[in-house]
Description:
Layout: E1 2-6, H1 11-22, E2 27-31, H2 43-49, E3 53-56, H3 70-90, E4 95-100, H4 123-138, E5 142-147, E6 150-151, H5 158-168, E7 171-175, E8 179-180, E9 183-184, H6 185-201, E10 210-213, E11 220-221, H7 222-235, E12 242-246, H8 266-272, H9 283-294
Helix pairs in contact: 1-6, 3-4, 5-7, 5-9, 7-9
Amino acid sequence: MRILVTGARGQVAAALLRAGARQDGIDVTVLGRPDLDLERPSRAAIAREAPDIVVNAAAYTAVDLAESEEERAHSINAERAEAIAAAAAALDLPIIQMSSDYVFSGDKDDPYTEADQPAPLNAFGRSKLAGERLVAAANRRHVILRTSWIYGDAGRNFAVRMLEAARAEEAISVVDDQYGAPTLADDIAAGILKVAANLLQARDEPRLYGVFHLTAAGRTSWHGFARAIFAASRNLGGPAAAIRPIRSVDYPTAAARPRNSCLDCARLAAAHAITLGPWEEGIEPTVAALLDRLGLKEHEA
């Protein structure tokens, strides 16, 4: 199985490369500029790699900056996603498009299902929702995977920011009234590989296509996530800070965030037999890798 991934610098792309290298019979190629021009992705550029499936993990992810750069966010997350999906369709290739919990308003108390109406609160969410719709229209053989609170040992993410903050400050304030499921990039990659394999084994099975939710099980707040990160870091001899829980209104940001980012993943389990474990499972090994990568293991455990 040959998988072409766009978004060479992203956490999911890095995790897919690792996952592919660990499994026989899977060849993952990650392309970004200059190999693949995301502004004008061509059928020829994709055809050169002779993939069986395309995964679009390229994204504009600066949520707050998107409020002042909405046109740019839309260009990357919607228009370029559409162009990649159309190029894949011209080659009769399915596409897996990564999307976000931020397509929802967060006003619902229960986890969101795929049947719930999206209503993004911010420019980033609007751009991702537009991307979903354009990809679906451009390539009938599409899978859209919404995930949330991605973290891992590559790139910049919440875990990295917390560990760096703990090195610099004795106490930090973290929002405690927004809820979601921190989801490990490696687990997302494993899910993508399973979806890809299913699509290639039963390419004409309608239930395998459409919109699905892919997150870890359980839920926590950003404060709870930070607490778990610092507990692991402390056990491993890394930095940890005291954490003050605060409300969203006490930490104003340019972009509004959903109060509830929890996603119901039952449809993915039924169609693709994919169920991720509890969000807590990936914390300690990821923190261990980050401490080494960032040079933050300053104390003896």
